């Protein structure tokens, strides 16, 4: 198999780190389903099948200064930006120590200021204008950082996508909009969601380049996001990137996808599962040896076991902590 | 002390805050070269440039959402909705996002954004240029809603809103913009958000209201005073969260309370004020709590006959005050 990453300027170590982050995201996801099905956690929203695009993109950003506005499937992105396995487990167990929300939000609603992971809500695509606002602030302050925002193809129908994209286009702001097109908005397939052939076609309306690329290939995603990031930092404005992939699991642990798609379709998509195809790549290019792989799997399992045990035993927030942080604490007495 | 108009107090507060803090910037439709459709931002584009006085696309959800994003990373945006009636596309951003950012992130993130909007009728604005929208937002913990009545309060409260660590909706009565004038110090000052202001002291009846209606109550109070009826006028100033202490104190003192709003009655700000008084002052009351409000129709019609029928005015307030005093 041809070594593609060398020509892209990516070292073996970086490519290995990409694969390891993808694998970690997948194994965490699988564990969450087990925890859900055994009654230990109430809810899972999954990112299986989307790890390649997430991790490829995250590695193309400047993880020391860029802002990310992930959506609820982006375990791969937040891991790459510094959220730990323990923190993710605290989140799904809704424990007080959860850095995303202190046990307030459903899983998947990421946010961690120290890693510039911007807090997210459930009404979809509200984060696109926020990313544009963060890019506006960066431009005003002549900072080198950019913002990176993700959303699904269904979400690209929301007004906030269009209003945000247009605003970014008008002001040539340093923001990357990445659609993770997993082909389903819960049960509704993309052809019932999009009036245009592609989400990326929408870019032209907002004066930015739009690309549809293979979201199962982290190297291709890396390449396009890197180019978009370079453009943004040069002051040339926003880019829309549509990454094509397949949602391998039901929408959430509360969904049964058998009612709207066939098992054959899912099985066929699994042949393109990036965990399989990218594994083949790293093995065949010699980036990942058998020994290293076995060690990696053992390390990840141990990490997840420890994180799960810790999170399961960690305390919940006290009931009355529900009252905290409605307003800034210094003002609370005056406003209550 | 110079006497200036209500709208000039808006401009003055914006200018002073932009001079004080380089993180303060303003954005909205037509606020740049044109200086705003009401001229609230006149001269700011010339003074601060287009980077800090941003003419946005006609796109209210983006105006709110972009401001929220910038606020989350340390800026102090002041977004203008051209009319309060046009805030509707931004409601998701204001309620689902701005109001919940601190809470949902367990105090990790915050959102010190100000959203200004002219509201209110009596200016031939019909259904979509006359509405009072405060009640829509007034059960959303995390938000603060400020509705000043005088130029003095406008300046002090808008400055406080810009310096506040949480999202503030700042509603300005558009009929007050040029019709209401008052003394405003040139010096820097802020007024406390969350505190009502007793605009007139009295022992016989209490009128609790906000915005333009404060002036109607003050005019009516003058007339009643000539007949020996002393009215206490409480200006809520912040309609959410409410200053319960001042409301309870004044209601308990006079035992007769009239609540006035230009908005529809049911589910309005004064409905909540009424509930606070009912919960806390039952044995102090000498008359049922009275509410004077707009009729239960969707919004203010255009024709002058129907507009006048809807709109609050000093005569309506005076009549209700006299009835209460005689109860």
Automatic annotation (TrEMBL), chain A:
Is tRNA processing set as a keyword in this record? Answer: no
The UniProt GO MF terms for this protein read:
branched-chain 2-oxo acid dehydrogenase activity
Q: Which GO terms describe its biological process?
A: branched-chain amino acid catabolic process
Alphabetically ordered keywords of this record: Oxidoreductase, Thiamine pyrophosphate
The EC number(s) attached to this protein equal 1.2.4.4
Gene3D superfamilies from the UniProt entry = 3.40.50.970
Residue span(s) of domain Dehydrogenase E1 component: 19-320
Cofactors demanded by this protein: thiamine diphosphate
Q: What class of enzyme is it?
A: oxidoreductase
Quote the catalytic activity from the record: N(6)-[(R)-lipoyl]-L-lysyl-[protein] + 3-methyl-2-oxobutanoate + H(+) = N(6)-[(R)-S(8)-2-methylpropanoyldihydrolipoyl]-L-lysyl-[protein] + CO2
Work out whether the entry's keyword set contains Oxidoreductase: yes
A Pfam family that the UniProt record links to this protein: E1_dh
Protein family according to the UniProt entry: Belongs to the BCKDHA family.
Function, in words: The branched-chain alpha-keto dehydrogenase complex catalyzes the overall conversion of alpha-keto acids to acyl-CoA and CO(2). It contains multiple copies of three enzymatic components: branched-chain alpha-keto acid decarboxylase (E1), lipoamide acyltransferase (E2) and lipoamide dehydrogenase (E3).
What name goes with this protein?
2-oxoisovalerate dehydrogenase subunit alpha
Automatic annotation (TrEMBL), chain B:
Q: Which residues form a coiled coil?
A: none
Q: Which keywords fit this entry according to its UniProt record?
A: Oxidoreductase, Thiamine pyrophosphate
Task: State the superkingdom.
Answer: Bacteria
Q: Does the keyword Kinase apply?
A: no
Entry's Gene Ontology molecular function annotations: oxidoreductase activity
Question: Which segments constitute the Transketolase-like pyrimidine-binding domain?
Answer: 4-179
The reply to whether Cell cycle figures as a keyword in the UniProt entry is no
Required co-factors: thiamine diphosphate
Q: Which Pfam families match?
A: Transket_pyr, Transketolase_C
The record's annotation in CDD domains points to: TPP_PYR_E1-PDHc-beta_like
NCBIfam families linked to this entry: PRK09212.1
Its recorded name reads Alpha-ketoacid dehydrogenase subunit beta
- Species: Domibacillus mangrovi
